[in-house]
Amino acid sequence: SRRMAWAAWALARVAEGAAGPGRARLVLLPPGGGARPDPYGWREAVAAAAGALQAGGLVAVPTDTVYGVACLAQDSAAVRSVYSLKGRNGAKPLAICLGDVERLYRYCHVNVPDELLRDLLPGPVTLVLKRSEELNKDLNPFTSLVGVRIPNHPFMRDLARTCSGPLALTSANISSHGSTLTVLEFQDLWPQLSLVIDGGPIGDIQSPECRLGSTVVDLSVSGKFSIIRPGCALTPTVDILKKYGLVPESS
C-alpha cells in the first residue's frame, strides 16, 4: 500500500542519519488511525511519547491539521525549549492541548455553553479563552488568555489523556516557515526533539489549504467572537458560533 511504502521510505531515510547523539527516535504509528489500532504498537507509541514528555522532552506529533511539537505546559524549562527550537518570538503565545472538553474547565474560564464547546471540539479549531490560575504562569506570562486545542486525532487525544496536565502545542516548523504535513518536512528539527511520532502524511500534501492550521477564534468576550486566524475551518466554525447567538466582536 502507499502508506506502507511511504513508511518504509521514511524509515530508510531515518536509518541513513540516525547515528550520533541528539538524534530523535522515530516511532511509526500503526495504520488504522486509532479506530482499530494494533494494541501493542499504538499503546507503545503513546507510552513512549508520554515518557519523553514527562522527562522534559519535546515530541513531534501528528494532529488533525499539521504536524506539531508538544511539551508539558506545566514544565517551564520545556516551554523555553520550544521557543528555542522554533526561533520563536517570546511574545507569541503557545496553545495548550487537552484530550477532552471536561478538562478544559480546569485551565480556562468558560463563558460559552458547554454544547458550543462540544460542537466545535474535538476539531481543527483553537479556542482562545481566559486562563485560570491552574495554568503554569511561565506559559504566555504576557497575556491573561490562552488558546486551547482538542485535535480530532486519536493519537493526540490518547496522549493528552495519558499526561497529568495540559500539553503545550505549536506547529512543527521554524517560526515564519511553512507548516508541515510529513515528518520529513521538519527533519532540521529532529536533532532537538526527544521523539518523532510518524502518523504518515496529513491531508493532501500538494494542497496549500491543508497547511493553513487550525482556525483560531477568541471567545473571551461574552456573547462575541473574533477570528484571529481563518485557518482551515473558518466557515463551519463561524456557522456554529452564530448558531449559539454569538456575534462578531466588531459588530
From TrEMBL:
This is Threonylcarbamoyl-AMP synthase. GO terms for molecular function: double-stranded RNA binding; L-threonylcarbamoyladenylate synthase; tRNA binding. Pfam families: Sua5_yciO_yrdC (PF01300). Cytoplasmic and mitochondrial threonylcarbamoyl-AMP synthase required for the formation of a threonylcarbamoyl group on adenosine at position 37 (t(6)A37) in tRNAs that read codons beginning with adenine. Catalyzes the conversion of L-threonine, HCO(3)(-)/CO(2) and ATP to give threonylcarbamoyl-AMP (TC-AMP) as the acyladenylate intermediate, with the release of diphosphate. Participates in t(6)A37 formation in cytoplasmic and mitochondrial tRNAs. May regulate the activity of some transporters. Its EC number is 2.7.7.87. NCBIfam families: L-threonylcarbamoyladenylate synthase. Keywords: Cell membrane, Cytoplasm, Membrane, Mitochondrion, Signal, Transferase, Transit peptide. It comes from the Eukaryota. The keyword Zinc-finger does not apply. It is an enzyme of class 2 (transferase). InterPro entries: DHBP_synth_RibB-like_a/b_dom, Sua5-like_dom, TC-AMP_synthase_SUA5.
